[in-house]
Write a structure and sequence with these properties.
The complex is a heterodimer of chains A (255) and B (496). Chain A has 255 residues and is α/β, with parallel strands linked by helices. Chain A is built from 10 helices and 10 strands. Chain A has a 6-stranded mixed β-sheet, with helices on both faces. Chain A has a 4-stranded antiparallel β-sheet with strand order 2-1-4-5, with helices on one face. The longest helix of chain A is centred in the last third of the chain and has 18 residues. By secondary structure, chain B is of the alpha/beta class. In chain B, 60% of the residues lie in helices and 9% in strands. The two termini of chain B are 24 Å apart. In chain B, the strands form 3 sheets. Chain B has a 5-stranded mixed β-sheet with strand order 7-6-8-5-9. Chain B has a 3-stranded antiparallel β-sheet with strand order 3-10-4, with helices on both faces. In chain B, strands 1-2 form a two-stranded parallel sheet. In chain B, helix 2 links the parallel strand 1 and strand 2. The chains are: A alpha/beta (255), B alpha/beta (496). Chains A and B meet through helix 3 and helix 4 of A and helix 19, helix 20 and helix 23 of B.
Amino acid sequence: MSTAEAAGGIAFALVQAGKRYGRLQALGQVSLAFAAGTTTALIGSSGSGKSTALRLLLGLEWPDHGHVEIDGRPLQRADVLPLRRRVGYVIQDGGLFPHLTALGNLALLPRYLGWSRERIRQRAEQLAALTHLPAGVLERYPAELSGGQRQRVALMRALMADPDALLLDEPLGALDPVVRHELQDELKQIFDQLGKTVIVVTHDLAEAAWFAERLVLLRQGAVLQDGTLQDLRERPADAFVSRFVAAQRRLPEAP
Amino acid sequence: MRGLLGALILLLGSCLLPAPAQAAPVRIGSKQFTESVILGELALAGAREAGVQAVHRRELGGTRILWRALLDGEIDAYPEYTGTLTQELLQGLPANADIASLRARLKPLGIGITDSLGFSDTYAIGMRDEVAARLGIADISDLRRHPALRFGFSNEFMDRGDGWPGLRQRYGLPQTNVSGLDHALSYRAVASGAVDAIDLYSTDAEIPYYHLRTLRDDRQYFPRYEAVYLYRLALEQSAPAFVGALHKLAGSIDEDAMRAMNARVKLRGVKENVVVADFLGIHAHDQGGGVAAQLLQRSVEHLRLVAISLGLAILLAVPLGILAARRRRLGQWLIGLTGILQTVPSLAMFVFMIPLLGIGTWPAIAALFPYSLLPIVRNTHAGLVGIAPELRESAAALGLPPGVRLRRVELPLATRSILAGIKTAAVINVGTATLAALIGAGGYGQPILTGIRLDDVGLILQGAVPAAVLALLVQGLFELVERRLTPRGLRLEARQ
């Protein structure tokens, strides 16, 4: 990708944002800023509120307390659709629409934006090269794709309209270790090349550290620690951080 | 979804719209029993002899339907009985009021009445002769001594003021085993011994045929039922020749002549128009083609009813289903409401349409329409609500506005469920549409109705078999449509 594409990015911020689902406090008055063009990993166990944080940033949910800021301005309901078109969003098992081919999935937003068939195909092929998706796969339906191919197509769909930011919610969570490793490499490359604002949610500390310098560790809807991997290791904010870091390092030594 | 709409338009387009009414012929109605149909045919033949264009809407149903249709101007004339007028339709008249006082009462309603046609067809209670002889029953009063007797009365007789309730009171009858029967079936019931006594009309052809004894009305409970024609007074201006023809028929039929005509139609299967022509000494007017032509005509009528009512139901029910899926609370109300509509007995729905819309094709379509709503609303709702949340959210996260999401993602994902609902509605509709004949809309119900009246199984099958075949065809057609319209990706997914 050219450096022209690397310009831009979106600055996101949660300001005292809280979200409740019935009795469950999914997120409790959290303030977090994500500067334009940076990559951040949100980590934590399931139920820590990391997915909720992402959904608030896209206006898929609304905080019952505090607010969301986009490029320094509070997010209004009327701004949500234009915002989402500037952001690519990928979820764990891709969320591909089963009734459309891979290309059909990619074409949904561009068609709405009025792109020509030709332009859509060109962009799809360009992204297929970027994500190492084999030719011919674009004509297939999601049910005919492997797990890794499905995640690649989902990533391509998020990138189609050249968004200023990527929000990824456990993008590799459902993949086997080999494919996962391969895609980690590719994603890292893409993040570095495109220079967009990237927020990636994962429960895997190693993966988080591979993608981003800045790690934000959440627990029960609150930020426990916000820093680098080194910070987490050497200056853990509390005992849970140490336990979380230790739990991730349980790799057996080679004999 | 565009495909679905296309199929719908095709369906609507392929069915012929009802032919526009011709230069307003006089419309004669008749009730759903043989004598009334014969008298209707008689009026028709009389009209033709007088050079008046007329049509006969036969077997429209019971008294209420005909009376209302006449008041609303849906029909111009029909045969009625004086007793029914005094007991059922007009209030505050003595049971045996003469025709002059009836005429005076009907005039403000815009209704005219002929003199008696020459016979009285009164209600009577009939039993098998041998049973009555064995028990020593000759008068209705004698029934009091046999409380265990089982009565089978026509539904109309059960309910009306001059029927069973009054009879029981007048005679102090103790019987409790009383069931409602279709009048056409009650003779078989009494002949087979399933019931011991039935209500009958004194001109019924079956009385001698089944060896029945009519019990003497020793307390003069039943009023006289002189046969007359009722007609709209406006006809005296618009079709004086027709009114003249009706009056000419007065006094021309005695009880024996009527019973003989009833017997020829009912027991020997001669067509009403032939019997009437023989009675008048004229040539029978040809009544529309052979079996194949009739079948074709009924199929067109039936398909028209089904296609239009179903098409309109789809146009309303799919948007309602979408609305129900969008607003959960409202959705529950909507589905509940369409469910309540579904529980209205379809026969009642057809009768209910008469004061609102009259009789014929459109009222029948209006009556069929609500029954197609529930399956389609419910399946549209279920199809949309059943979409996996992550798919719905993925569509939202793309930044597509709700309308585009609905068209490109949600409706295609719900296609299969929606089509299944339409298929269910269509099959139900084909069956229910057989009732449309009751209010003059024709279709496969017509031979079924006539067949029940004449106790003619062959005739019933002429309606029942094509209706069943049509239901199967509709089912097959929709399965084909389903296969064509279900997106390939969904079929692949289902196979995994």
